[in-house]
Amino acid sequence: MDKYIKAPIDEEVIKDLRAGDYVYITGKIYTARDAAHKRLCETLERGEPLPISMKNNIIYYLGPSPAREGQVIGSAGPTTSSRMDKYTPALLELGLKGMIGKGKRNEEVRQSMIKNQAVYFAAVGGAGALLSKRIIKSKVIAYDDLGTEAIRELEVEKLPVIVVMDREGNNLYETAVEQYKNRGR
């Protein structure tokens, strides 16, 4: 089922999202990859404030390529999400409600998503050039020294994603495999 949502998101929006839903996100989201996640968690450990609020926000696991002349951003394909798994529960505890990436998540992340009522979206890997056309504004807001891994604030319009894991822990990667195995029976 196709759904259109505005970011940031809250629990009311999340209640309506199910694993397998096609979603189009419009609004403000943030980027962060491995190095930025590590720095965010080190900041938390020191008891210092983060450069962005996690509350109701979506983080896109993205390190874009440099923008060419006339472009807002370069290729904007997702990064493998499992690389952020060790940092994710701490950010979910702070109110992070959505993550966009590709690939599976570990059980600790799944349990933390259920506890904190969050969703995990997948963007199509290899489609970075097409995804970048859905980004209408981009600005670095933290950790500029990390280059492509700096935290960016993005304004997106109808960014296409799929709900892979919903707030109840339903996992499209698992259910799709079962459906495939059972087809034709």
Describe this structure in words.
This protein has 6 helices and 7 strands; from the N terminus they run βαβαβαβαβαββα. A 5-stranded mixed beta barrel has the order 2-3-4-5-7. The relative contact order is 0.22. It has helices at 11-15, 34-45, 88-93, 107-116, 128-132, 172-182; strands at residues 2-7, 22-31, 58-60, 98-101, 119-122, 135-142, 151-165. With 185 residues, it is of the alpha/beta class.
Shape: globular
Order of helices and strands: EHEHEHEHEHEEH
- Percentage of residues in helical conformation: 25-40%
* Spatial ordering of strands, largest sheet: 2-3-4-5-7
Total count of helical runs of at least 4 residues = 6
Structural class: alpha/beta
**How far do the termini sit from each other?**
25 Å
Q: What is the total tally of β strands?
A: 7
Gyration radius, rounded: 16 Å
Spans where pLDDT lies below 50 across 5 or more residues: none
Task: Describe the largest sheet.
Answer: 5 strands, mixed, barrel
Strand content: 25-35%
Mean pLDDT: 92
Briefly say what this structure is.
With 185 residues, the protein is an alpha/beta fold. 26% of the residues lie in helices and 27% in strands.
Task: Supply database-style keywords.
single chain; 185 residues; alpha/beta; 6 helices; globular
